[in-house]
Amino acid sequence: xxxxxxxxxxxxxxxxxxxxxxxxxxxxxxxxxxxxxxxxxxxxxxxxxxxxxxxxxxxxxxxxxxxxxxxxxxxxxxxxxxxxxxxxxxxxxxxxxxxxxxxxxxxxxxxxxxxxxxxxxxxxxxxxxxxxxxxxxxxxxxxxxxxxxxxxxxxxxxxxxxxxxxxxxxxxxxxxxxxxxxxxxxxxxxxxxxxxxxxxxxxxxxxxxxxxxxxxxxxxxxxxxxxxxxxxxxxxxxxxxxxxxxxxxxxxxxxxxxxxxxxxxxxxxxxxxxxxxxxxxxxxxxxxxxxxxx
Length: 294
Description:
This protein has helices at residues 5-18, 47-53, 65-70, 140-148, 182-196, 221-241, 244-261, 268-283, 288-292; strands at residues 36-37, 61-63, 74-75, 82-93, 101-114, 118-119, 154-157, 163-165, 170-173. By secondary structure, the protein is of the alpha/beta class.
C-alpha cells in the first residue's frame, strides 16, 4: 500500500475538483449530518468531512470492506472506496527525552464505503435518519420555462449531486424537497439546463461539445467560460421566473471566483454574457426577431 497519505488525499481532492465538485457549498440538503462510521458511530473530522461529503451520498454512514462483511453484507461490485485519514503516534528513539524516546505523529489512511454502496447490511444496523424534508411547491413560472424548453434533455432526480452529462445529454438533480428553497432548486436546474444548451444538438458551444461530447479540461479557459455562461444563464432565466433576487448574490460570488483566475482576459465576461443570453433565449424559445421588438 502506498503510505503517502498526503499524496493520496491531495490526488483525491484534485480529482473531485476536476469533476466540478465543490462539497463545502451546495444549496440542497442531504448528508447534512456529519459523516460517521456505522459501527462505532464516531464522526469523521477534518479533511475527511469534505472528502466524504464530496461523494454525494444522502446517508452519513460509512464502513470499511471488512466491517461490511462482519455485518453479513458486502460492497457492490464495481463500487469505489473513499480514503479517510487518521493520525498514529510512532515511538522513536530520542536520547534528549527523559524516557529515551518520543512520539511522532504519522498520517495514515484507509478506505471506506457508504452504506448505499453496500448490499445485505441488516436494516436494524442502520440508524434511521432524523429530520424532515421541505415540502416542495413548484413555481409555475419556472416550471413553464423548463417544460417549454426546445429539445429538453432528460432530467433525473436522486442522489446528492447536480450535474449535466454531455455524453448522456442528461441533467441529474437532487430531489426538489432536499433543496433549501424552491428558488434554490430552480436556480440550480437553470444552471444545468444552460450547460445543456452547449450540446452539439443545440447551440454546439465550445466547452461542452468537446471531444467525445465531454467537458473541456478543468481549469482551462473554455471550462471557466462555460461555468460563467451557465451561472449567468441561470440568472437570466431566474429573472424571467421572478426569482432573480435569490440568485444575484450567489451568482456574483460564483462569477467573481472565476474572474479572479482569468482576470487577464478582459473579453471573458462580455463573451460569456453574450453566450449566456443566447443560451437563455434558446431555453425560452425566443428568436432574434422577437428580441428586437421587445
